[in-house]
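Quick one: structure tokens for this chain, please?
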Amino acid sequence: MFFKWRFAMRTWFLATSMLVACSPPTFAESIFVDRAAVMTRDASDLEVVAPPEVPKEIADAIKSAPKIRSVIPITKSETFTQQVIKADEIVFDKDAHLVLANFSYPWVAIVTKTLKFRDASAYSFIEREMSIRAASDGNAGTVGQKGADNFGETNRRGNDGHPGQPGGRGSDGSAITLPTIYVIAEKLLDDKGKEIPPGILNLAVLVRGIDGGAGGQGGRGGDGGHAGNGKEGASGAFDCHEGPGPGGTGGTAGQGGRGGNGGAGGAGATLVFVSLKRGADAFSYSRVNNQGGLGGAGGRGGAPGTPGGGGSGAGRNGWCGPSGPGSPGDYPNPANLGGGTNGPDGAKGEMFVIAVKNLDPYF
């Protein structure tokens, strides 16, 4: 009986362990396919105004920037468009998101004396605006000019229509560059005001590069021009002195324009964490997604125009019989000038964690 009980318990334990090991990752964990390499540097014993990872002009700009508020609560999702988000205290609720929504700056900074987390074991997020999935697509090319009609005849045969012109090239897709992000905090505290030990804080920073815009489609080719009609035959009293002319051939359709090139994928944002030694150690465990964005797809070549109509054959005239109509123009071969090239993928961003002696350069 005892043996059976031990065997059953062992079976339950193994099954439970396998279920835990095979449990799917949470959303926050699943997005970190390739965790950012962390470059750490301890400058806490050095008498430096600011580490070289924070240029002096940026440190001066941060110091001169006014505080937004003394305390900034981050509840659910809070969006910021300022270049410097500065406060004595920034407090994250459980599962709260601090969203950076202005990409026009070369850098942005989140600066606080105290960075507090209501629940350090739950995920808190610093992220770029996620609704912007890709840069703007290129515009379609212009329609090619229509070939001129060529009514009339030459040596009794209808004139050929003129060819349509190629469509315009699609414009290239756009690219968006993310700013460098500085996160500067003197201390990282839990809800009880105690410093958070390394490895406990679940801070996720989502700053993946923005995909490049797709290239615009090439413009439609111009239509071919219409051909002229054949001239009637010259009839005499007893016979046809000069036969009728056939209709001319319609103009060839213009080729579709070339597609625009896809925009370059944006690089993932470079992150610079600055704190005192204990805070820097906690920051070094942050989960970061700063992969580069995908390059935009090249635009398709444009559609060809419509071939021009052939001229009508001459009608019967006395002793002269009618002639046949001319052929419509051809479609171009190839149909267009080709598609655009795909944009290159963006590079992975860098991540720095710097321990400093004090945060005087920023306050």
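Helices lie at 2-21, 27-30, 56-64, 277-283.
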